[in-house]
Amino acid sequence: MSAEFAIVYAALILQDDGIEITADKLSTLVKAANVEVEPVWFSLYAKALAGQDLSALLMNIGSAGSAAPAAAGGAAAAGGAAEEAAAEEKEEEKEESDDDMGFGLFD
């Protein structure tokens, strides 16, 4: 098991039990699982997860990417559609130019 997975699992256990996530508690759980982890990782993860609701983070993984374009507004979305069409045309032109390189798969 990797060190990162062990610490993340320990953090999830603490969150599930409603216990505050600290470096000492992460270290205790990981040591109980007989996984060797450098001590610096415990404090890094504890600081990163301090005050975070892990259950909310897990439940909202996919929603952050879809919310950003929706917040841009209708006018920006209409302009973005025109830009996307232009980008697709450029990609198609690029693909066509790649086909004419003077050799083929069976040449």
Automatic annotation (TrEMBL):
Gene3D superfamilies documented for this protein: 1.10.10.1410
Pfam families xref list: Ribosomal_60s
Cleavable signal peptide: none
A cellular component term, taken from the record's GO annotations: cytosolic large ribosomal subunit
Biased composition, class Acidic residues, residue ranges: 85-101
GO molecular function terms listed in the Swiss-Prot or TrEMBL record: protein kinase activator activity; ribonucleoprotein complex binding; structural constituent of ribosome
Region (Disordered) location: 79-107
The entry's keywords: Ribonucleoprotein, Ribosomal protein
Single Gene Ontology BP annotation: cytoplasmic translation
Family per similarity comment: Belongs to the eukaryotic ribosomal protein P1/P2 family.
Protein's name according to its UniProt entry: 60S acidic ribosomal protein P1
Record organism: Umbelopsis vinacea
UniProt lineage: Eukaryota, Fungi, Fungi incertae sedis, Mucoromycota, Mucoromycotina
